[in-house]
Amino acid sequence: MTTERRTFLKNAASLSAAYTLPALGLAQTAPAQRQFNPQPGAWRTFEVTTRVDIQQAEGVTHVWLPVPSVDSDWQRSLDSSYASNGSTRMGSDAVYGARLLHVTFAPGEKNPWVELSTRIQTNNRAVDWSVKTPAPEAASTLQFWTRPTALLPTDGIVRKTALEATRGAKTDVEKARAIYDWVVANTWREPKVRGCGEGDIKTMLETGNLGGKCADLNAVFVGLCRAVGLPARDVYGLRLVPSAFGYKELSGNPASLKGAQHCRAEVYLKDHGWVAMDPADVAKVMRLETAQWIKNTSDPVVAPVNQALFGGWEGNWLAWNMAHDVALPGAQGPRLGFLMYPVAETADERLDSYSPDAFKYQITAREIKA
Fold first, then answer.
1. How many CB atoms are located within 10 Å of the residue 84 CB?
2. Are residues 100 and 196 in the same domain?
């Protein structure tokens, strides 16, 4: 480990506790601090369109596209429409209920294409920690969201790390805070990772290579939570439009969203219900928002993001689903760790979802004003 890295971890760990301070105190000590404070308000409506044109079809070709399947107090998944020169079928994952459009193209179809348009409504999220608003869940539901998956084991080094991170924490809120702070302090955004990463947290912890992207870093948060009995889940989605707070790295370009996939997280807390979390976006702001890698969370660019993303997120993003270990209907290839990208297979191979220009696909969004 380099001296630079040791210094970063030391600074981040020592500063993570600072965010129990009231926001007013932060503003007084950091007058240049930027604003990032999403609050629930008016719903926004978006139409999101995915267009796929397979470049090298061989034999029977399949395409699977995620369709929004989350309905909650922060997202409404509305209607979808689609067209194609293949055979189309709307379906869902049997375990998680993740909706998807499955298109099959016959051998000899030289230019397979499909276009899917779907509408959603989104809202900002922010928990009021001063108010207890229990949202009871069935015991079976909470148990489901503590179980291990292929990429999220809850024993071995994952449990050992979770116990160390939460040492001294008594309540579920204290444990969630400790794990969030641990992820912010010990992981980092690694721009060289392809796509959103793979989310193989056991390998990350065993190797000590804790650099990654959102599907890696938020998976660490979810796995550590589950390992100490906190129900938690990844939420896989897509940034749609620019942030209202001017953060370029927390924005989407609606004209081209083929690299805008983003995974978030939720944890269930008995006095607050399902609560939004996104330590991965804290890491993204630290690494990429400015020309220099920011290495402590008290920086005025990072501080408001670090504070707000423990319990909230901005509604410029849609959620596809919360599914792991997804078995695609009719697929020859292996299960997916998650369904967040367009997926395709020809008779010869599964295409690279992280290479949209070769695949090829495009995703766009437009906001529908009332």
1. 17
2. no
**Residue 306 shares a structural domain with residue 180:** yes
For the segment 231-260, the average pLDDT, to the nearest whole number, is 98
Evaluate if residue 3 carries a pLDDT over 60. Answer: no
State both tokens at 333.
Answer: 């290839």
pTM of the model: 0.90
Query: What whole-number distance in Å separates Cα of residue 179 and Cα of residue 232?
Result: 12
Integer Cα distance of 222 and 228 in angstroms: 10
Domain extent, residue 104, equals 44-122+326-368
Q: Examine the domain organization and report whether 148 and 68 are in the same domain.
A: no
Whether the per-residue pLDDT at 2 is higher than 80: the answer is: no
Alpha-carbon separation of residue 100 from 91, 136, 160, 343 (angstroms): 5, 29, 36, 10
Q: What share of the chain is helix, strand, coil (3-state, %, to 5)?
A: 25, 25, 45
Q: CA 157 to CA 136: how far, in whole Å? A: 31
Indicate whether 56 and 158 sit together in one domain. no
Per residue in 168-225, pLDDT (tens digit) is 999 999 999 999 999 999 999 999 999 999 999 999 999 999 999 999 999 999 999 9
pLDDT tens readout for residues 257-309: 999 999 999 999 999 999 999 999 999 999 999 999 999 999 999 999 999 99
369: which 2 tokens?
A: 């004003």
Please tell me whether residues 161 and 180 are part of one structural domain.
yes
CATH, residue 111 = 2.60.40.2250
- How many Cβ atoms from other residues are within 10 Å of residue 332's Cβ? 13
Average pLDDT over residues 34-48: 97
What is the CB neighbour count within 10 angstroms for residue 349? 12
Domain count, the chain: 2
- Spatial distance between the Cα atoms of 274 and 265, rounded to a whole number of angstroms: 10
Query: How far is the C-alpha of 324 from the C-alpha of 338, rounded, in Å?
Result: 5
Pair (330, 287) in one structural domain: no
CA distances from 331 to 37, 60, 62, 113, 187 (A): 43, 11, 8, 18, 34
CA 140 to chain CA centroid, Å, is 24
CB 159 within 8 A of CB 81: no
Specify whether 244 is located in the same domain as 138.
Answer: yes
